[in-house]
């Protein structure tokens, strides 16, 4: 499937074949593609919690308004990020870069984020959002379906997955084989409502 088709046909699917199994190699391929998503300063602070254990899936389902696709999809990904990744061995993010790039960028990372908690969190959420879209489009290219979710108790899910104190949960993504199509698109805004040419009036 080409990229345009994946974008056009990606929908938030909530009804999956509970018997469909994604091989470990396919899960690794999907997550490997997500790891190619861009991040500021190449920090790569997303942490993908790939949940396949049925008991853990049921616990998360209970914390997600008992939504069936949390446990019936082939894969559940809890999208998290290490919001303090910028201060953890920043040189490793540029270890393969040319010397001049590494020498310029690594010293910039600390001053950019230090003492700016809102920026740290905004960066984490931005990065998770970009990676989430990569996952959903890659899944569609694999002829699978997906659904991004924010309808869950973030604190409870963090507890279930033993989230480190300096990490944040962003969203859940379910991936699998649809058994029922998504609703028709409920109401797409016209382009002139969402595209601003040069500046707002």
| Global structural class | alpha+beta
Hey, roughly how much beta strand do the residues contain?
5-15%
Radius of gyration: 19 Å
Estimate the global geometry from the Cα principal axes.
Answer: globular
How far is the N terminus from the C terminus?
A: 40 Å
Q: What is the average of the pLDDT values?
A: 96
Oligomer: single chain
Topology pattern, helix = H, strand = E: HHEHHEHHEHEH
Low-confidence stretches: none
The residue fraction in helices comes out at 40-55%
For the largest sheet, list the strands in their spatial order: 1-2-4-3
Protein described:
The protein is α+β, with helices and mostly antiparallel strands and 201 residues long. The protein has eight helices and four strands; from the N terminus they run ααβααβααβαβα. The chain has a four-stranded antiparallel sheet with strand order 1-2-4-3, sandwiched between helices. The mean pLDDT is 96.
How are the secondary structure elements laid out?
Layout: H1 3-9, H2 24-34, E1 46-51, H3 54-62, H4 69-72, E2 75-82, H5 99-113, H6 117-141, E3 145-149, H7 154-160, E4 167-176, H8 191-194
Antiparallel strand pairs: 1-2, 2-4, 3-4
Helix pairs in contact: 1-6, 2-6
Protein traits:
globular; alpha+beta; four-stranded antiparallel sheet; single chain
């Amino acid at each position: 499937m080409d990229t345009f088709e994946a974008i056009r046909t990606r929908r938030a699917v909530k009804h999956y074949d509970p018997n469909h199994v994604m091989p470990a190699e396919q899960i690794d391929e999907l997550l490997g593609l997500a790891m190619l998503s861009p991040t500021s300063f190449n920090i790569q602070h997303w942490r993908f919690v790939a949940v396949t254990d049925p008991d853990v899936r049921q616990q998360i389902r209970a914390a997600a308004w008992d939504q069936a696709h949390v446990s019936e999809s082939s894969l559940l990904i809890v999208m998290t990020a290490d919001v303090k990744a910028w201060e953890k061995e920043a040189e490793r993010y540029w270890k393969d870069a040319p010397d001049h790039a590494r020498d310029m960028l690594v010293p910039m990372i600390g001053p950019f984020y230090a003492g700016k908690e809102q920026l740290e969190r905004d960066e984490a959420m931005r990065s998770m959002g970009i990676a989430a879209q990569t996952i959903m489009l890659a899944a569609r290219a694999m002829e699978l379906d997906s659904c991004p979710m924010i309808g869950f108790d973030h604190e409870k899910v963090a507890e279930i997955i033993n989230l480190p104190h300096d990490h944040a949960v962003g969203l859940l993504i379910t991936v699998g084989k649809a058994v029922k199509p998504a609703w028709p698109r409920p109401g797409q805004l016209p382009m002139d409502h969402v595209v601003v040419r040069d500046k707002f009036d």
